[in-house]
Amino acid sequence: MLHQVFSERKLSRALLCALGLSVLSFGSAFAADPIKVGAIVSATGPASFLGDPQEKTLHFYVDAINAAGGVAGRKIELLIYDDGSDAAKANSFTKRLIQQDHVDFIVGASTTGSTMAMVPLVGASKVPTLALGAGSVIVEPVKPYVFRMPHSDRLAAQKVLGDMKKKGITKFALLSDTGGYGKSGRNETQKMAASMGLTIVVDETYGERDADMTPLITHVKQSDAQALLMFGTGQAPAIITKNFRQLGLKIPLYATHGQASYEFIRLAGPAGEGVLMPSPALFVADQLPGGDPQKAVSMKYKADFEGKFKMDVSTFGGYGYDGLMMGLDAIKRAGSTDKDKVRDALEQTKNFVGISGIYTMSPTDHGGLDISAFRMVQIKSGKFVEVK
Amino acid sequence: MSTFLQYLFSGLTVGSIYALSALGFTIVYNARGIVNFAQGDFLMLGGMVTATLVPLGWSLPAAISVAVVVTVVCAALLQRFAIAPAGKADPVSLIIITIGASIFIQGIAQNAMGRNQHIVPSFSGDAPIHFLGASLLPQSLWAMGGAAALVAGVTWFFRGSLVGKGMQAMAINADAARLMGIRNGSMLLLAFCLSAFIGAVAGALAAPITTTVYDIGLPLGLKGFVGATLGGLGNGFGAVVGGLLLGIMEAMIAGYVSPAYKDAVPFVLIIVIMLVVPQGLFGSRVKDRV
After folding, report:
1. How far is CA A373 from the centre of its chain?
2. For residue A72, what is the enclosing H or E element?
């Protein structure tokens, strides 16, 4: 009796297993291998103003594309890690993405420091990487598998100094922070100034977490600087702006695209009025003429992001958008996820309309943007307005 | 002259915040002989809670009051559930407990109030006040005046009130104080609450100047600790002077030498203090009771 029940149970269990297996294989016959997109962003830590909107953007668009059927019939699987603004963590997550997760391409990291920690690994394993840090060093010298989405610090320096020259300014002050972006930006500004015939009369550095910069601004006030350029990230530029107004300086105050955010306007408050900076078209999208190729993409991104997340759209999130979309576009053009083919397709990208600008890559240029990707904007009445 | 004055104003402004932070350290140190490394986070909570409530429509005084209450409650919970159960543990263990509490508080702040920087509007606007060629923001006056008022209040409390004298007695000799009917447990709770009160107000005063974020407690606490040590750990007057001196030194180094070296000041100072004058400027040499 027991013997019979036992074998009955065994039989039914076996039948169930067979049924289950067949359903599984039935299902997988329709689903091709997913495209694995790896991402490392600084969702927490001092660079979270970069990584948080990037994380949100990546999740949103991966979900949206999957809901619309995926890319070439394949779903996208997003494997995203938070490096906490720490380059060492970025390095170890890169190892995980390559060795355990076997991703097809990587979007990240948010900062120059973290990106440079990833570079040796992705180069050795030949994984196409679309970096979201802004340092020139990321693509100079060109690394075969690394591409950079944000405008470089050199472009920012070029745009700002070009505007200074238009105003007839010959001498300016430069305040930069000691982080990756600030250091690299200072280098580029010095070189650009020399090549454009401008003189830096005050060249000082500050810490990213400094709370009071009035001694620095006093130095600027005592000099014959005709303008001030601040090159840094985080909240310090907002404090510099407030100190600047406190000491009553009237010379033009320039920031860089690190301050192209509503967060900066909020932190600087009324003191931010009149600050000039280079910015992607995103913030002035509604002011763009109808024929501008970037208008549609920018307006849609703004509507998507603000509608879903109920917070101001960010140019930094835009870098994440560009990285994801360009990577998927390259896969479409290459017709496969073979890493070398994707890399070649990336290098052949022409006139790709992104949030940050219109990209044209080449074997010698893995940045893809030129000065036309920047608009000069000024803060007026708490909003960004384009100035010609 | 006006340059020196400008640096001095800058130094006095941040120095006032450091002084209050240092005072908070001193009060707890006097009560139990431990350094409460969550002190910096009391300043953080004062600023962050205020910064969270004001955009929601709360008036500044109401927001600051709530921030202070939240911080004091936090400190009371810390004392009741983390310090008190440790009983007669040695000071090092208790210090480590406060470090753990500090990390815990930062984690809660990060989750409840976000990871971004927050701004508190200046209490009376941003129109600079010009004085002998240097300019001062109204908020700096609030910081300096607020610090002075708090220090005066605390001094009166310790010298002029029975409870305050009881706390002093406990600092001198806890056993004798207990024999006199002074309850050590309640006194310690009061010490934590008082240092939290001071910290929260300091944080709210500083927030319009420094902007505030969930981990600003670390630098503010560290500099307060250096100020307290400079003045002599355990000496309230020394703590205030030490905090002010630290702020002024930072501003002078930033102004006359280079801003890049400014951050080295507290670290170098603490090494110098420990080597040359470990008891601080105003501390007494006698450490052991016979």
Report:
1. 14
2. none
CATH number of the domain to which A131 belongs? 3.40.50.2300
> What tokens were used for A258?
């690190």
Same-domain check for residues A244 and A338: no
As a whole number of angstroms, the distance between CA B203 and CA B120 comes to: 11
- Within-domain flag for A126: yes
Q: What does DSSP say about strands A375-380 and A276-279: parallel, antiparallel, or unpaired?
A: antiparallel
Quick one: A138 and A73 in the same domain? yes
Please name the member of B14, B115, B130 whose beta carbon is closest to the beta carbon of A211.
Answer: B14
CATH architecture, range B2-276? Orthogonal Bundle (1.10)
DSSP A373: G
Q: Which tens digit of pLDDT belongs to each residue from B128-141?
A: 888 888 888 888 99
Maximum distance among all Cα pairs of chain A, rounded to whole angstroms: 104
Q: Do A267 and B117 touch (CB under 8 A)?
A: yes
What is the distance between the alpha carbons of residues A221 and A204, in angstroms, rounded to a whole number?
13
Q: Residue A296: which pLDDT band, with cuts at 50, 70 and 90?
A: very high
- Which of A258, A300, A265 has the alpha carbon at shortest distance from A280? A258
* Cross-chain residue pair B10–A214, CB shorter than 8 Å: yes
Give percent above pLDDT 70 in chain A.
Answer: 92
A137 and A80 inside one domain: yes
Residue A25 belongs to some domain of the structure: no
**What is the chain B residue with the closest CA to A219?**
B255
Tell me, yes or no, whether A264 and A303 share the same domain.
no
- Is the backbone of residue A69 left (phi > 0), alpha (psi -120 to 50) or beta? left
| A92 and A183, same domain (yes or no) | no
Query: Least CA distance to A246: which residue of chain B?
Result: B128
The mean pLDDT value for B74-93 works out to 87
Given 3-state DSSP classes, what are the helix, strand and coil percentages for chain A, each rounded to the nearest 5?
50, 15, 30
Task: Identify whether residues A147 and A296 lie together within a single domain.
Answer: yes
Q: Which residues contact A57 (CB under 8 A, 6 or more apart)?
A: A305, A317, A318, A320, A321, A324
Which residues in chain A have their CB less than 8 angstroms from residue B130's CB? 248
Instruction: Say which DSSP state B233 is in.
Output: T
Report the run of H or E that residue A6 belongs to, with start and end.
helix A2-30
Separation of CA B69 from chain center: 16
The owner of tokens 């815990």 is B104
Q: Would you kindly state where each structural domain of chain B is located, as residue ranges?
A: 2-276
- Position A246 scores a pLDDT of 87
Residue A23 lies in a domain: no
Among B277, B223, B270, which residue's Cα sits nearest to residue B251?
A: B223
- Rounded to two decimals, the pTM is 0.77
Residue A86 in domain: yes
User: Which structure tokens are listed for B22?
Assistant: 């240092």
- Cα angle for residues B15, B18, B23 (degrees, 5° grid): 125
Q: Which residues pair with A202 in a beta bridge?
A: A173
d(CA A382, CA A256): 17
Confirm or reject contact between A248 and chain B (CB < 8 A). yes
Q: Which domain holds residue A304?
A: 35-151+292-370
Nearest-angstrom CA–CA distance, B13 and B135: 12
Which stretches within B33-182 are classed as H helix? Answer: 39-53, 60-78, 91-113, 138-160, 162-172, 174-179
**Polymer length of chain A:** 388
CB half-sphere exposure, B191, CA atoms < 13 A: 32
The pair of three-digit structure tokens given for residue A9, joined into one six-digit string: 């149970």
Instruction: Assign A375 to helix, strand or coil.
Output: strand
Q: Counting Cβ atoms within 10 Å, is residue A325 exposed (0-12), middle (13-18) or buried (19+)?
A: buried
Q: Is the ipTM of this complex over 0.95?
A: no
CA separation (Å) from B246 to A4, B55, B171?
A: 87, 33, 26
Mutation test of the interface with chain A: which of B12, B48, B116, choosing the one with the most A Cβ atoms within 10 A?
A: B116
- Rounded to the nearest 5 degrees, what angle is found at the Cα of B86, between the Cα atoms of B85 and B91? 150
